[in-house]
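Bumping my old thread because nobody answered last time. Still need a sequence for this structure:
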């Protein structure tokens, strides 16, 4: 006698619950013959859905045996389980689980793509199934344009596209009205009459009565297993199905190319569906690549112009940093630069303004808009010291610094990025920096200091607030001192050195001023090259981290889609490929836009009549493209890997 199609022996499923375990299925013994129509019924929490997940190879039993056509499922690897789902099972879900970006025809095609069928074959097959189910005229519509009954018909067509011999239907009528539910049940009966095994999970006994056999489950145990006497079936409500064209075995490379095209198409659709988020993700890459190309072009131009750009830092400002000099590997461990140093400097006659500074980075959010931002913890005199002009609102004062207030001053880049509605004012609005809410009290012009204008988003908070709520560290990144107009910056630097050396007992700091930078660059071009490389590396690194963060968010938002793809037979490699392609595309497009931005900057530079022409290097442009690709692969791999290793059951439950 032939072995039954499905055999379960002593099957158990347990889940961790606190310090113990929760047993959902208890030593289930069950056989299902080929061609049966079986209903599994039970109340919520009885274990019927868990049993269906195990039957469909979406979940694994904790103990016991599960065989399909004599093949032990428990011994199969993840991709082997995906092949089993792809070749033998078709899933019909209560909530349809259709992909909103695809048309009805596109949704039906997905399992056939993963099965390696040619484009012509799968499109012909999908169109024939939709026509059979009365959906021919709606094949080009997206799920949001279809009724519940129509979406369920698309779900049935998807389950049949690979000619599945076992149909698993989880509450197939639960989300439908009576008429649509009746149509779906008639379709399932017709599929069963064609010889397919149909397993329906339901809590509705009226639905179960349409099956040939009813298995009732309660508290993880089979309570009863009985045959059902049914009247002779009526006329079929749907046209007979044509035999599924299998065709000759396809070349593996051709099948892989089809899956790559599908992954590429889905990556483009996802990027288009979240255009603003995609652009904000690209922003770090755009800035990084543009900075690389522009800096190299500047380096090939006039040395005098480079020195002029550096001089824009300001001739009467001193920046005091921990460490012996730039590049001191021990500077991060030096904790002697503290607020007391700034207080002592403020009392000196040569100090026009003094401010402690600390910094970190976080994600700034307002409404649905988010972007990576630099959080600057500064004192009340920072804006005077740096010469940042107030455009709107007010600046925070010493009282806010003392009280660790959550008053934020933002620059115009942050304002224009977060507050995009026409006429919308940033003043008085509450934004989130990570999980910390702050209120915007003022807007200042974007900082123009450093090596050219910055497009980074900057948020300024009292340094006490940043130390308390973000860094948890009382040490300072730097102290900024604006030298009084009647004092020489060199003499002021000598006085600062003497004062801080006396306070610290040793010289564990260095002072940066414009004259020092000019002297350093004049003395050695290697220092300039190193500095350029550091700027490019930091810019690209920040952009890469932004890509990784947003891709992790994308994975969490699209867990349901991942679950659907796994349920219809996607391999781990297919999911990995899809998200990795998206990360690489974001970086490549961002790199291209960055190159365009750099070239555009050169045009504007020429139009400004500065008398200096940027000289672009082909090698730097090629390097920028290669860097974009490598960043996409390196920083996109972790989110893509996480997506590919999701549990199909957990993923589907979040759709």
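Sorry it took so long. Here it is:
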């Amino acid at each position: 006698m032939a072995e039954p199609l499905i055999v379960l022996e002593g099957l158990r499923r347990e889940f961790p619950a606190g310090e113990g375990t929760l047993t959902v299925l208890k030593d289930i013994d069950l056989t299902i013959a080929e061609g049966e129509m079986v209903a599994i019924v039970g109340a919520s929490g009885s274990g019927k859905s868990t049993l269906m997940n195990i039957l469909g190879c979406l979940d694994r039993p904790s103990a016991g045996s599960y065989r399909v056509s004599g093949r032990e499922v428990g011994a199969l690897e993840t991709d082997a389980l995906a092949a089993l789902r792809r070749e033998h099972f078709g899933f019909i879900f209560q909530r349809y689980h259709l992909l909103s970006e695809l048309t009805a025809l596109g949704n039906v095609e997905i399992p056939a793509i993963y099965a390696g069928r040619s484009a012509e074959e799968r499109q012909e097959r999908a169109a024939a199934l939709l026509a059979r189910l009365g959906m021919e005229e709606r094949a080009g519509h997206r799920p949001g344009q279809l009724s519940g009954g129509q979406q369920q018909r698309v779900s049935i067509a998807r389950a049949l596209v690979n000619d599945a011999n076992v149909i698993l239907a989880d509450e197939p009528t639960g989300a439908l009205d009576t008429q649509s539910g009746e149509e779906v049940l008639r379709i399932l009966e017709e599929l069963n009459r064609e010889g397919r095994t149909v397993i329906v999970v339901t809590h509705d006994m009226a639905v179960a009565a349409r099956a040939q056999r009813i298995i009732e489950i309660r508290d993880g145990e089979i309570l009863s297993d009985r045959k059902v006497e049914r009247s002779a079936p009526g006329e079929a409500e749907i046209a007979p199905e044509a035999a599924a064209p299998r065709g000759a075995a396809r070349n593996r490379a051709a099948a892989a190319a089809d899956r790559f095209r599908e992954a590429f198409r889905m990556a483009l659709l996802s990027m288009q569906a979240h255009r603003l988020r995609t652009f904000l993700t690209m922003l770090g890459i755009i800035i990084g690549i543009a900075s690389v190309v522009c800096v190299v072009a500047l380096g090939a131009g006039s040395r005098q112009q480079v020195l002029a750009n550096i001089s824009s830092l300001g001739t009467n400002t001193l920046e005091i940093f921990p460490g012996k000099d730039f590049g001191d590997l021990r500077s991060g461990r030096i904790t002697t630069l503290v607020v007391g140093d700034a207080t002592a400097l403020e009392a000196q006659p040569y100090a026009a303004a003094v401010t402690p500074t600390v910094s970190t980075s976080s994600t700034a959010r307002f409404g649905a808009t988010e972007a990576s931002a630099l959080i600057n913890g500064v004192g009340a005199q920072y804006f005077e010291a740096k010469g940042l002009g107030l455009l709107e609102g007010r600046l925070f004062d010493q009282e806010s610094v003392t009280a660790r207030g959550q008053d934020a001053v933002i620059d115009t880049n942050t304002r224009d990025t977060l507050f995009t509605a026409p006429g919308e004012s940033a003043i008085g609005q509450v934004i989130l920096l990570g999980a910390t809410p702050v209120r915007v009290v003022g807007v200042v012009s974007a900082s123009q200091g450093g090596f050219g204008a910055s497009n980074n988003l900057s948020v300024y908070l009292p340094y006490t607030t940043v130390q308390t709520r973000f860094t948890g560290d009382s040490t300072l990144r730097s102290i900024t001192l604006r030298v009084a107009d009647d004092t020489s910056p060199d003499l002021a630097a000598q006085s600062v050195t003497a004062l801080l050396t006396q306070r610290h007992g040793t010289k564990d700091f260095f002072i940066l001023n414009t004259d020092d930078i000019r002297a350093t660059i004049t003395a050695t071009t290697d220092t300039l090259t190193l500095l350029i490389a550091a700027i490019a590396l930091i810019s690209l690194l920040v952009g890469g981290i932004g890509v990784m963060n947003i891709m992790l968010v994308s994975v969490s938002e699209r867990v349901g889609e991942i679950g659907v793809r796994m349920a219809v037979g996607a391999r781990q490699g297919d999911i990995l490929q899809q998200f990795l392609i998206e990360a690489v595309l974001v970086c490549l497009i961002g790199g291209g836009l960055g190159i365009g931005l750099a070239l555009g900057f050169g045009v504007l530079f020429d139009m400004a009549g500065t008398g200096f022409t940027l000289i672009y290097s082909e090698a730097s442009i090629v390097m920028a493209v290669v860097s974009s690709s490598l960043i996409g692969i390196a920083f996109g791999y972790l989110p893509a890997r996480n997506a590919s290793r999701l549990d199909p059951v957990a993923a589907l439950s979040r759709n």
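The CA atoms of residues 116 and 256 lie 7 Å apart. Let me know if any region looks off to you.
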